[in-house]
C-alpha cells in the first residue's frame, strides 16, 4: 500500500492533484484543505496517503496533515460513509470545526455539507464522538495556505465550477460566488474559501 508521496506538483484543481514522483504521475484526490496547502504547480509536496482498493479500482486519497488523514479514516469507518463522501465532508468544513461539530453533536452544521443528510450526520456524531484524535480541535498541524493566480481565466466561472464539483447547487453557488468576489476579488483560492463561508451561512 502507498502510505506517503513526495514529489513535484504537476497538476492542481479543486478536489484532485497530480504528484510527479520520479517521472510517474500519481492522481490523488484531496480535500480542499489540502488543496489550499500544497502551493503552486512545480512546488515540492509531501502527502500522507490512504490507498483505497476496490475490485475495479485503486484510488489514492491525499492529505497535508495527520489530522486530516485520521479524520478521513474515522469517517469511512462510519456506516454509509464512503471515501468520496468523507472527502466531501473534509472539503465542506475545516478539520477543527468538524471535530467540534462531532463533539457537540451539531447535526445542523454537518447537514450543511453537500451529500450529508440528517441520518448520516447523526450517525457521524454518534459513532465518532469518542473516537476523534485527542486535542484535534485545537488546530491543524502543518497546514498552510497555497496561492494560485487566476491569470486570464474567468474567475467567477472557475469558482462556480469548483463548487458544483463539490456538490453544491448552481443557484446557491452563484449567489455565494457573487458575494465572495466582492470580498476577495482576483484570487481563486481566496474567493473559493469565501464562497464556502457564504454557503455555510
Instruction: Give the count of helical stretches.
Output: 9
Assigned CATH superfamily of the largest domain = 5' to 3' exonuclease, C-terminal subdomain
Stretches where pLDDT is under 50 for at least 5 consecutive residues are 138-153
Shape: globular
Sheet with the most strands, sense and barrel status: 5 strands, mixed, barrel
Distance between the termini: 40 Å
Averaging pLDDT over every residue, what do you get?
A: 83
Strands of the widest sheet, in order across it, are 1-2-3-5-4
Give the percentage of residues in beta strands. Answer: 15-25%
Q: In CATH's first tier, which class of the largest domain applies? A: Mainly Alpha
Quantity of strands, as a count: 5
Assign the CATH architecture of the largest domain. Orthogonal Bundle
The secondary-structure class comes to alpha+beta
Instruction: Name the assembly state.
Output: single chain
CATH fold-level label of the largest domain: DNA polymerase, domain 1
- Percentage of residues assigned to helices: 40-55%
Total domain units:
3
Write the element-wise H/E pattern from the N-terminal end onward.
Answer: EEEHEEHHHHHHHH
Radius of gyration: 17 Å
